[in-house]
Amino acid sequence: MKHGRRTLRRAIRLAAVGGLLCGGLMVSHAAAGEPPPGGRTAVDGADPSAPPAGLAADLVSRLGTSRTAGSWIGADGRPVVAVTDDDTAAEVRRAGARAEVKRYSMRDLRSATETLERAPRVPGTAWVVDYASNEVKVYADRTVSADDWSRMSGVADRAGDFVRMRRTEGVFTTRVNGAVPIFNGTGRCSVGFNVTDGRDNFLLTAGHCGPVGTPWFRSAEGGGGRLGTTVARSFPGDDFSLVRYDDRGAFDGTNAVDIGQGRSVPVIGAADPVVGQQVFRSGSTTGLRSGRVTALNATVNYREGTVTGLIQTTVCAEPGDSGGPLLAEGLALGVTSGGNGDCTEGGMTFFQPVTSALAELGVRVIDGRLATDRDTVAAPSAQPSGQPSSQSSTPSLPAGAAPPAQAVVPPGDTGRRPVTAIVEARRLVPGLGVIAVSLLGLLAARWLLAERADRDHLRAHYTHHWS
Which helix (H) or strand (E) holds 451? Predict the structure, then answer.
């Protein structure tokens, strides 16, 4: 009997401890924000060490545009690759990704977008390649006239039967008027990311915020002195600009994105986004917002001109958020360009990719972990797959990421703000629930075992005295 009690007690405790460990892993996983790992093997040249997004990109690049039609991250966190035949699908599955067979290849889809680009420009329109639906979607806002709609529909018909025309609410506009506001005397934008060329420090923001030579200040009235000057710009075509810090006292060796309530998230590098990825945007008008990447290489015909190669997202934005940062897991992804809708009714927002801007400007993102004079040690919001600890002075970043440099702080930042992590709260709930249930199980098991031990003790006592 004693042996049975010990076995039962051990089993209950092991089950409860296992529940605690499971819950702890779930919470850690939610905080890290990484997709669940999918078992995969290196097949036909696929990189076995690549994270899910990297695996999909590697497969698409290797298999080519005639056999694939894009990739994205599924709801379960696994990479999905669109392919055009069953043999390619089998190859993708052997590499550890999920395959979906589609009718049209990336070559077909790109040919359609090239046809749209050659047509006369219609302000208020935009188009993106939707990998999951295997379509090219053409959007027209409410400013597009019936005649222009008819002309665009004719172009879409010639481009292919997989091109779909859609009307949208609102107006496609740039968001003039990181998260920290900057002023040029006539408008307001947001700081994107701090960057450097190894000699001078700059901030990266949207190109439509102002031409080369634009002066920037800390306040609308010019109070606090001049912050910096725009020294490089690309708009339209692209939508980025580089502002050199004139006030060298505006930073103290940090680089973090303001997310409100006195908190900030350190930036550790730059990378390309993936369709389906959860992302965060912060801006001086609407603060911190989240959403998902819905398309890449989007084209938007603003009234000021056409911008190509943009990131389309479900994140909302409003005037004044222009230039603000788009990030995920501490990696800079883009700066806010424009969109339609607002943060009350919702809408779509487009971002200039950071990596292409950095390459053209010859600068790199400053690593927010390399601060040397802070009360709070900066730590990344989450470690990307394969990312070393924050103690490493030369971290290895994901494929396509830009290397970090010495850090600077956003304008107006004192460098004494708590650094926090962006955590998807809904993913914490299951893990916390498992932990709570396990703790209750431990308490209940202890009570039940104690009660049973008392009964056994009394039974043995009475048997001894009344036998």
Answer: helix 425-466
How much is the pLDDT for 1? 52
- pLDDT > 90? residue 82: yes
Is it the case that residue 338 has pLDDT exceeding 60? yes
Q: How buried is 286 (Cβ within 10 angstroms: 0-12 exposed, 13-18 middle, 19+ buried)?
A: buried
Spatial distance between the Cα atoms of 439 and 432, rounded to a whole number of angstroms: 11
Residue partners of 30: CB distance under 8 A and separation at least 6: 423, 424, 427, 428, 431
What distance in Å separates the CA atoms of residue 143 and residue 164, rounded to the nearest whole number? 19
Cα–Cα distance measured from residue 331 to residue 365, given in angstroms and rounded to the nearest whole number: 9
Whether 313 and 334 have beta carbons less than 8 Å apart is answered as no
CA 6, 7, 13, 14: dihedral to nearest 10 degrees?
150
Beta strands at 226-234 and 215-217: parallel, antiparallel or unpaired: antiparallel
Supply the pLDDT for residue 89: 96
Any residues with CB less than 8 A from the CB of 448 and at least 6 apart, and which? none
Average pLDDT along the chain: 76
pLDDT for the residue numbered 293: 97
Q: b/e map of 392-425 (b: 16 or more CB within 10 Å)?
A: eeebebbebbbebbebbbbbbbebebebbbbeee
Q: Report residue 231 as tokens.
A: 């020294």
Bridge partners, residue 201, by sequence: 196
Closest CA to 308 of 152, 106, 131, 117: 117
- Single-letter code of the amino acid located at 152: M
Alpha helices in 33-130 (DSSP H): 52-63, 86-94, 106-118
| Residue 304 DSSP label | T
Return the active site residues: 208, 239, 322
Residue 370 DSSP SS3: helix
Alpha helix stretches (DSSP H) within 146-234: 146-159
Q: Which secondary structure element, helix H or strand E, spans residue 32, and what is its range? A: helix 2-32
* Average pLDDT over every residue of 136-157: 94
Strand, helix or coil for residue 189: strand
- Determine phi and psi for 223, rounding to 5 degrees: -65, 150
> Is the pLDDT higher at 399 or at 450?
450
Q: Cα(332)–Cα(136) distance, rounded to whole angstroms?
A: 27
Specify the pLDDT at position 441: 61
